[in-house]
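Standup notes, structure subgroup. Blocker cleared on the arginine input:
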Amino acid sequence: MFRSKRLGDMDEKALKYISSMEWDWWLFKSDIEVDKAHVVMLYQMGYLSREECSSILKAIETIEKDGFDSLPQAEDVHEAIEKKVIELLGEETGGKLHTARSRNDEVATCIRMSTREELVLVMSGLLSLRGTLLDRAEEYLDTIMPGFTHLQHAQPTTLGHHLMAHEESLSRDWDRLFDSVKRVNICPLGSGALSSTGFKLDRELTSKLLGFDSPIENTMDAVSSRDFVLEVVSVLLGLMLNLSRMAEEMILWSTQEFEFVELDDAYTSTSSIMPQKKNPDVAEVMRSRCCSVFGAMTSIAMILKALPLTYNRDLQEINPHLLKALQITRESVDICNAMFRTVKFNVEQLREHVEKGFLCATELADTLVRVEGISFRTAHAIVGMLARKGITKPALEELRDVAQEMGIEVSNITQKDIDDALNPRVAIERRNLGDTSPLKSARKRLKTHGFMLENLENKIKNAR
Ligand code: ARG
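Run returned:
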């Protein structure tokens, strides 16, 4: 620790208590890059000689090669790396690395870079999951199934329509992730502890070298704000909530009550006592992992609440929550992808279930409106009465009788009109639910998002 001449030794337990080394491995690579960029900039601005610049860079490369695990004990990764540079070069040269810099602007820059990197991975996994959903939707574009509201049979739909619904909501999560990068990818470096520094720095240069869009203007804001973390984690939570709904669906649909799907063996467990069991454990864990992301988000919000400007060590405690949220989400996206890629849909069962629960009642009411010219509310009442009486496949006479009982004259509708209305295929066709154009536009959107991610990745890669 750099206690300098200011302080005596730190209590060992207290050091362990405040040290962030346990999770700072996550910032190691970013800190190495930040160090390199800072050193190059110091040289360009005339604060380091060519030889000093080159030996510090070489020392940093040695540390990079040796890896995080070979760092000395320290409060955090930033101190550990600097300590090692000084160990390798002596204080005369190594001690110049931290010129015109504070750990406050350093750590904020590292967090932004590591977050950016993880976000790219989450977004790339999400593109792949969305691709899987569209592939499966294409496979089952006109596979008929019951659509639900209140978990009750509502109206016929297609499995393609259902799967594309998931894809569309995930595409908005993707959009939000990508948009958050704007607020992540700005560079605090050069802000010093809080009020920049009297050294003349080229903040544009370090920002550019590290692949940022621009430096953060206000140096106090740069070292003290973590709203970008809160934003990212809340977007991750939104995504995880969607995954938990998809997981729930797999759990429900694989029950003996539904039997709409059979999960692949690879994503199920059995029981230690009941030999027949095939349990959806992977989906269950996914359903509950989103709670940890929610926990991370509330922890971050609480740490930020009422924190005075500028840097406070509390901020360090945000990092493990951020890391956890990113890791959980990335893994969940990948596993969800594999689960949906391999699940078997029981087409026969889906079709049979369309026959249960008077799914075409709305279509019958709509037909009465069209053919008889009566109001929808009246038509709703007639079909409601049929449902009440348990007549879900009315003959023309039955329909007329029920209407008459209610004092309504039904005269134009034919048996064919009724049969068509009760045919789920007709309902699907009238609603264009088997149409290929939504799939085409979803694929187009996915492709555009692919290009957007590629551009971002290239920008980061080129900077490196
Ligand atoms: N490990 C610290 C963090 O993550 C680094 C900054 C320490 N700065 C300080 N002034 N003590 O926030």
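Discussed briefly. The longest helix spans residues 103-139.
Next: hand off to the docking folks.
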